[in-house]
Amino acid sequence: MKEAIGKRIKNIRESMKMTKEDFAKAIGISGQYLGIVERGGSCLSVEKLKSLCDLTNLSADYILFGKDNNLIDTTKQKISNFSDIQIEVGCNALKDLALFIKSLD
């Protein structure tokens, strides 16, 4: 579990294009300790996890378990603004895109 959390934290940091040192400083730990966390050797304290959530605007559920409940709620809310026909057209376009990408392999 520690390794999975560490990988998520590393992916988050890299997606934010932050160095270990800058990211660590922003959440209040050392760059060396962040490296240990990213490798799964240790975990963040609850206080530092809160700092990470505040910095990244991500939920603790996502960081700890990979569950992004905000994404589901946000998606449901945005989709409710479209008609059934618009949703069907969008889904078909996504299906076609997925098939195209798969054909590239």
Shape: elongated
Counting structural domains, the number is: 2
Total strands: 0
Looking at the overall shape, the CATH architecture of the largest domain is: Orthogonal Bundle
Report the top-level CATH class of the largest domain: Mainly Alpha
What structural class do you assign from the helix and strand content? mainly alpha
Could you give a short account of the major beta sheet?
none
Helix percentage range = over 70%
CATH topology of the largest domain: 434 Repressor (Amino-terminal Domain)
Describe the structure.
This protein is mainly α and 105 residues long. The protein folds into 2 domains: 2-65, 434 Repressor (Amino-terminal Domain), CATH 1.10.260.40; 69-104. It contains 7 helices and no strands. It has helices at residues 2-15, 20-27, 31-38, 46-56, 60-65, 69-79, 84-104. It is elongated. 10% of the residues are buried. The model has no long low-confidence stretch (mean pLDDT 91).
